[in-house]
From TrEMBL:
Region of interest called Disordered, as start-end residue ranges on this chain: 354-375, 823-850
EC number(s) from the headed UniProt entry: 5.6.2.1
Cross-referenced PANTHER family: DNA TOPOISOMERASE 3-ALPHA, PROKARYOTIC DNA TOPOISOMERASE
Organism the protein comes from: Quillaja saponaria (Soap bark tree)
Keywords: DNA-binding, Isomerase, Metal-binding, Topoisomerase, Zinc, Zinc-finger
Family that this chain belongs to: Belongs to the type IA topoisomerase family.
Purpose of the protein: Introduces a single-strand break via transesterification at a target site in duplex DNA. Releases the supercoiling and torsional tension of DNA introduced during the DNA replication and transcription by transiently cleaving and rejoining one strand of the DNA duplex. The scissile phosphodiester is attacked by the catalytic tyrosine of the enzyme, resulting in the formation of a DNA-(5'-phosphotyrosyl)-enzyme intermediate and the expulsion of a 3'-OH DNA strand.
Name of the protein: DNA topoisomerase
Amino acid sequence: MGGRTINVLNVAEKPSVAKSVATILSRNQGLRIREGRSRYNKIFEFSYSIRGQPCHMLVTTSVTGHLMELEFRRALPKWHSCDPAELYHAPVRKYVPEDKKGYQENIRRGSEEMPVAWARFSALIDREIHEAVQNLVEPNQWFADAVDARQEIDLRIGASFTRFQTMLLRDAFAMDSVTDDKNLVLSYGPCQFPTLGFIVERYWEIQSHEPEEFWTINCSHRSDEGLATFNWMRGNMFDYTSAVIIYEMCVEEPTATVTNVRHHERLKYPPHPLNTIELEKRASRYFRMSSEQTMKVAEELYQAGFISYPRTETDTFPSRTDLHTIVEEQQGHPDWGSYAQRLLDSGAGLWRNPSSGGHDDKAHPPIQPTKFSTGESGWREEHWKLYELVVRHFLACVSQPAVGAETIIELDIAGELFSASGRVILAGRICVKNYLDVYRFESWGGSMIPPYVVGQQFIPTALTLDSGVTRPPPLLSEADLLSCMDKEGIGTDATMHDHIKKLLDRFLTQPRTLTCVSRQLIFEYGESLVMGYDDMGYKLWKPYLRAVMERDMKAVSEGAKSKAEVLASSLQQMKACFLDARLNKVKLFEAMEVFFERSNRSGGDEQHVAGEVVRRCGLCQEADMVLKRSRDGNFMVGCLGFPQVENAIWLPGPVSEAAVTTNICNICTPGPVYKIQFKFRLLEIPPNYNANHLGCIGGCDETLIQLIEICGTGSRMPARGRGPTAPSSNGYQSNTRQGSCIYCQETGHSSSGCPSQLSVSRNARSRGMNHHNEGTSVSCSTCGTPCALRTANTANNRGRKFYSCPSRDCNFFVWEDSVNNGTGGSSLGSNTGRTSNASRNSGRGRGNRGGLHAAATAFVSATGDPVSGRRCFVCGDPSHFANGCPNRGT
DNA sequence: GCAAGGTC
């Protein structure tokens, strides 16, 4: 070895790596830097020795990501030039785009006729880089194959579906009238579609939420030292009668006794070191910046040298990091300089070695400040904010956690437990904010409460029985969306914001569906597309498909599968799915029609048809409540202020038609409450009810209340994403590949049109009861007819069995479990059937869970006051309470 | 005019 010096050309994946490698290998000695043929590519030169062989590391040049791209050959770039199905096998070519020709030239000039070897390393640290260069290996064809395969699959699938759905729907609907964009592209991609799926799925979850009423007892106490609010330790109780009984017990003996006072120290830890996803999430939460904007600004700060490389998964500092120096640089800052000084003062005890978030991409450190600045002349507000976030986050990471004292006080009122927690001002127990002093984006939270001692007694200032309704989850925030993508492996930290932006740019969703700022529904195409494919039975909008693809890529890179094998199987499956989707394109049309119908309706939102208004919303007191029909055909009366105002009255599941009339209810207040003409599906209601019914949703209508109790409401959609179309392992369902239906294994129809599934869903839709006789052991007490055993499907009693008389003239109804318990049956209207018990006795109707809850709320308010409510709930007698009522059933 | 992956 030794002798003549040879030239070695090093090609790194990106300029930042090229620079690091050159710095490490040259040990920063004799390193010369000159401009390359491409603007962003410096060329580094230095001397080195590989296994004793003196080398002129002539240049270390770099590419920027992928040098080559893929496109369809010949005339195929023209959309109408071929059937999109051809794109699964049409020839493609790899080429170097015009703006990358410079990189190509750098490599070609330096490497012609040279042997090629691979310096394989996984971290930009001295030891690894030197070892890699001393132990060069053969280039790995498997890795290259995996990248190629992914590129080809993404292009073929993306292009075929995008062309198909864009041309199909643009021809069928006047899209540009909605978007003012004649070149609207309804794109489909293996990353962007699941991203859209997360948004739509959450939206559906909100839509299908059935508000359930609950009751809770609240206690508050005002003294000279302040106000304390105590929560009932049972939390929310869904059984109204039980809640009222307990409440009356408390009102009867309202003296509160403090049973427990606990003080304890709580720590609030600073965040982990900052990586890309966390930067995007926090900028979104703290500054309402979009992830795309955040990355743009971060890139600019990085280019100008103020922060480190912004695309990193790493959230743990390498042990060699000189954290002190970074803090020292910030000492002169007018806002956080004094905090930095405190950190460096070892006597202050503020320093703490940063925690580890457990991620390390072995290439880049966490995002940290690299240059001190008090703001530059060219900076916009976003630059300032992001730089501040990076610096404050870094200072927080090397700080002690905040320490606070929390106090929990427990009370006993008539055997019921209540508790309050908060901070109590006590000598020697002061919250030490530590990192919270610099990390102004977070706070300790919690409230102050006055001090109490064990054994102390008092009469509550207020003791109320309050009602509430369960709420659906909020719309996805951009931070939530990033978390979903991260969790399911959709995109990379460098591309996630891109996928979100694409959806926004292409009208597939809107900022408001992400951030919950608008009061109305999403009108974008995105939901319709997801709905259309979902109706076909394809879970293309779920992340599974991408996950399968990622697994395949990994198998190729490990040599477990060949590129050809993965290409063939992936493309064959997706082509089958594509062809089937095209056959079922009517589903896309239908879904799109729903979209247009809704957006037309929303246009006339303020001047909606007079006939739709049922009453003024009692919750927001502002908007009207209107009769609506969900896309599953179920009826409800909802506040126009949705989703800000969640006041919805779901109507009985068996309603087939409903129309608001001009008849005004003369019982329900505040009026006017317009009556609704209903038509019920006879097969789905008990025989003693009529198909036609003029009803009121104000709470006075016993028929409606009973039908909801027995048959349930239509509020729960046959949930998308659940049920018979559960995801298969390959992420989508296609029967065409095997030629048989995945449900019944028969040929001749697709899985989405399987008759067995149609009948299942039809049954599922006929909410309420099963009409087959499950064994008759009970007879009607009036006419003696044997009664059918049926199953209730209400929120309260789902699955509970009951008997009712098949005769239209009898009201006999009894729960099966009460028969078994020996409590017997009765007719509706007497006092034993659970359905009618409370409502009859209260004289107002107990409303229902998720149904006519306005009525129940009114009732609660009438009794909720400890003064006006001092009467027995069961019989109304003011001389006693329900727990002592002689008429109370067991 | 289409995908996703990179980056100055």
